Amino acid sequence: MKLPSRVQLIDVGPRDGLQNEKQPVPAAVKVELVHRLQAAGLKEIEVTSYVSPKWVPQMADNHEVMDGIRRQSGIRYSVLTPNLKGYEAAVADKPDEIVVFGAASEAFSQKNINCSIAESIERFAPVVEAARAAGIAVRGAMSCTVGCPYEGEIAPERVAYLAGLMKGIGVQRVDVADTIGVGTPRKVQAALEATLTHYGIDQISGHFHDTYGQALSNTLAALEMGVWNFQSSVSGLGGCPYAKGATGNVATEDVVYLLHGMGIATGIDLDALVDAGVYISEQLGRPTGSRVARALLAKRAG
Ligand code: HMG
Ligand code: MG
């Protein structure tokens, strides 16, 4: 066991969390959510994506949201860019990091971004090149590293293959995503091991959806390997429109509680984070998806 003493969390709630919402969420609410997350101590926030508004209508307000944020120094604001068209729109809004997103599963690549894995790498290459030339950091999300809604179980070799392709085009760090939350600790560790054949431990983050309730266990399994970057969504928001039935990311509140309980620093104020979760849950008109938030709110009420 080589547990890290500090963990960096990327809250992906404004992007992964809200992209799947059927009801319109005003840009002002998204901006306020980002403000509350930064006030709670998040140092990385995935704000929005520059994808087709026909495919993901909820992210059509990307420019308005990026423009509305009062930025704080020391915070990294990232956005998703699937192709050059998305990159060109994004770059005008000055993100600190762009994210290209591919999949370890061919079928998911087709459903999500309408091209094969090989074609996706061809589309990402000029995006990565342009971003790096402009001094913008580049992350690569790797979907379906454990299981795919269309192909079932995904072998670690396919994760290693995608990680190698990402590395080959200059992607600086990668997210190992369990898109549909089917992973269990040993399987997630195998996906991380496969990624480690191309990226160092400092360049790998865990992105675990909690559909089957395994995300915290998977987080612990990744921590035991030394992974110290994770993505999560305040209030457990989220899901991918092209991964039917997949629920949100693990709740940031729950991850923070786990980490602080283990003596691992995050720089996040859990109470302020719970308040941010209450804010967005009230806006969406439903209870928080965070168990920790529910427990702490009950304690406050008592
Ligand atoms: P396409 O249809 O293959 O693209 O879509 P195209 O180049 O043929 O263009 C078709 C139309 O889309 C054209 O418009 C383009 O202008 C427009 P039209 O002439 O029909 O009016 N277009 C764009 N518009 C805005 N921004 C762009 C853009 N590109 C083309 N960037 C595309 C390819 C990738 C655009 C499409 O498939 C798409 O938008 N997919 C959405 C994918 C998505 O956002 N998925 C959710 C995020 S990924 C995720 O959640 C997983 C993650 O969390 C990790 C995990 O959990 O696994 C990251
Ligand atoms: Mg996701």
List the helices and strands and how they pair.
Elements: E1 8-11, H1 13-19, H2 27-39, E2 44-49, H3 62-68, E3 76-80, H4 84-91, E4 97-103, H5 106-113, H6 117-133, E5 137-143, E6 147-148, E7 152-153, H7 156-168, E8 173-178, H8 185-196, E9 204-208, H9 215-224, E10 229-232, H10 252-261, H11 270-284, H12 291-301
Parallel strand pairs: 1-2, 1-10, 2-3, 3-4, 4-5, 5-8, 8-9, 9-10
Antiparallel strand pairs: 6-7
Helix pairs in contact: 2-3, 2-11, 7-8, 8-9, 10-11, 11-12
The protein binds 3-hydroxy-3-methylglutaryl-coenzyme A and magnesium ion.
3-hydroxy-3-methylglutaryl-coenzyme A binds at residues 16, 19, 49-52, 55-56, 80, 82-83, 85-86, 101, 112-114, 141, 143, 177, 179, 207, 209, 240, 242.
Heteromolecules bound = 3-hydroxy-3-methylglutaryl-coenzyme A, magnesium ion
Tell me the strand order in the biggest sheet.
Answer: 1-2-3-4-5-8-9-10
Secondary structure tally, helices: 12
Oligomer: single chain
Along the chain, the helix and strand elements come as EHHEHEHEHHEEEHEHEHEHHH
Largest sheet: 8 strands, parallel, barrel
- In CATH, the topology is named TIM Barrel
Distance between the termini: 39 Å
How many runs of DSSP E, i.e. beta strands? 10
